[in-house]
């Protein structure tokens, strides 16, 4: 009985240690990006083989100020809204026509198309969006 408890404890320790290592591997690029954004441009790639990479010596927001100075965010926002509205209108128009055709007309392959539509609805959106980028 005692060996079973010891085995369960060892399994838990290995499970949590493995998850911690995987978590650090996945989170470290995000931490590096945040740390690099707070460093001067000349020091971003200094000390790449050290833990000092993740700790900015002189934290400043100059990089963020420079981005807002260089980029016309109002124009970027306007372009994004224009693109989204155009895609939205075209998407609604095309999908409405296709939905009407699938609902009202009987043709060969209709059930197969409906099966694909239902299968795509079941898939998580992340799995569909990932290949786009």
From TrEMBL:
Instruction: Please name the taxonomic classification of the source.
Output: Bacteria, Bacillati, Bacillota, Clostridia, Lachnospirales
Q: Kindly state a single biological-process term from the GO annotations of this entry.
A: transmembrane transport
For membrane topology, the record states: Multi-pass membrane protein
Supply the alphabetized keyword list. Cell membrane, Membrane, Transmembrane, Transmembrane helix, Transport
Report the residue ranges that make up the ABC transmembrane type-1 domain in this protein: 77-133
Q: Which Gene3D superfamilies match?
A: MetI-like (1.10.3720.10)
Q: Which domain of life is it from?
A: Bacteria
Chain segments annotated as transmembrane = 12-35, 81-103, 112-132
The record's section on PANTHER family has:
ABC TRANSPORTER PERMEASE PROTEIN MG189-RELATED-RELATED, SN-GLYCEROL-3-PHOSPHATE TRANSPORT SYSTEM PERMEASE PROTEIN UGPE
Official protein name in the record: Carbohydrate ABC transporter permease
- Where is the major localization of this protein? membrane
Its annotated compartments are:
Cell membrane
Please give the GO cellular component terms listed in this UniProt entry.
plasma membrane
């Amino acid at each position: 009985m005692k060996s079973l408890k010891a085995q369960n404890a060892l399994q838990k320790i290995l499970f949590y240690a493995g998850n911690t290592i995987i978590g650090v591997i996945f989170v470290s690029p995000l931490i590096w990006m945040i740390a690099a954004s707070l460093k001067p441009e000349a020091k971003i790639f200094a000390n790449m083989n050290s833990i000092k990479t993740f700790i900015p010596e002189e934290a400043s927001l100059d990089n963020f100020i420079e981005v807002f100075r260089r980029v016309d965010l109002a124009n970027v926002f306007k372009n994004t809204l224009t693109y989204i509205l155009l895609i939205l209108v075209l998407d609604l128009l095309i999908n409405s026509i296709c939905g009407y055709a699938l609902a009202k007309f009987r043709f060969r392959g209709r059930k197969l198309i409906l099966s694909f539509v239902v299968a795509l609805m079941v898939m998580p959106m992340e799995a569909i969006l990932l290949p786009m980028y």
